[in-house]
Specification:
The structure is a single chain. The protein has 307 residues and is α+β, with helices and mostly antiparallel strands. Helices cover 28% and strands 20% of the residues. The chain contains six helices and eleven strands. The strands form three sheets. Strands 4-11-10-6-8 form a five-stranded mixed β-sheet, covered by helices on one side. Strands 3-5-9-7 form a four-stranded antiparallel β-sheet. Strands 1-2 form a two-stranded antiparallel sheet.
Amino acid sequence: MGKENELTFLQKASIQWNSFRKFLWNSEEKTVLGRNGKSWAQISLFYLVFYACLAIFWAIMLIVFLQTITEDKPKWTSYIGTPGLYQIPQPEEKLNMIRFNMNNEKSYEKYTKPMRKLYDQYVENMKNSDAVNCTDGGVRPDDRDTICEFDIEEAFGDGVCNPENDFGYKLGTPCIFIGLNRVWGWEPENYDEDDVPKEIVDNGYMKNFITIGCEVYKDVSTQLNNTEISPKAGISFKYYPYLGAANDNYKNDYVSPLVAVRFSLFKKNTEVRLVCKSYAANITPGTGLFDTGFPSELRLDLTINTK
C-alpha cells in the first residue's frame, strides 16, 4: 500500500520546478530570488558603498605609489649591482659547448646563423640610429643622455670575425661575440695604477676600457695557440652608463657594445675548456641583491674537428 502513495519521477520533477519558479518570482509575497524590493535596495546600497570605498582606496594607493617613481629611471636598481658576461652564439646544450667540423658547413651553421643575424641588426641600426660618433679614448661626453654609436664593422676591423669568413668557423679559428649585461646606471671605473691585474697588464691594458681576456681553464696554455680580441682594448667606457630602462627613445638607439674573440687551438679534435673574464675596478661579485659570489666570467667548451 505504501508504494501506491509514492510520487512518480515526473510528479517529483514538477514539484521541484514549481518550487524553483516560486523562488524566482513569488507573486504572493512579491519577492524575487527570496528578497522583496526593500531588501534588494538595502543590499544594493551596501555593495555600492563597499566597492566605492575599495575603488577610492585603490586610487589613493596608486597615487601614492606613482609619487615614488620617476619616468627617467627604474624604481629599484640594486637587484643586480654589476654586469655579467654573455656570448653569441648561445649553444642549445645545457653545457656551454661549441663543437663543429671546420670542413662541414652544416655542422657550424647553427653557430654562425645567430651571429650573422646579430651582425646584420647592428649594421641596420647604424643606418637608422640617432646615436653620435663619440671621440676616441673611451671618454663619454658630459651629456649623459648622449648615446655613442657602436659601429660593428669598424670595431671588428678587417679580421676574420665577419660574415664573409663565416666568423672564422670555416677557417678553424671560430669567433664568438662577448658583451656585458645591461645594468642601469652602472659605470665602469679604472684601476689604480698599483691594482691593475698582472694578466691584463701583459695583454696591453688601457685606461677607460673594460678589458676582456680569455684563456684555457686551469692554465693549460699548450692547448691555446692564440686569442685575438677586437677591439683589442676591449669595451670603451663611452658606452656607459646605460640609462634606457624607462626611456623608449634611448632603448631604440642604444645597442650593447661587443667584442669579437677569435680562438686558435693547437689541438684539433680535442675538447678544450676556455674561460673569458671582464676586468674593471668595480666589476666585483655580490654587490646587488641577487648577485652571486661568482666573478664576471663565462666558460666555454670548444671542440674543433677536422674529420
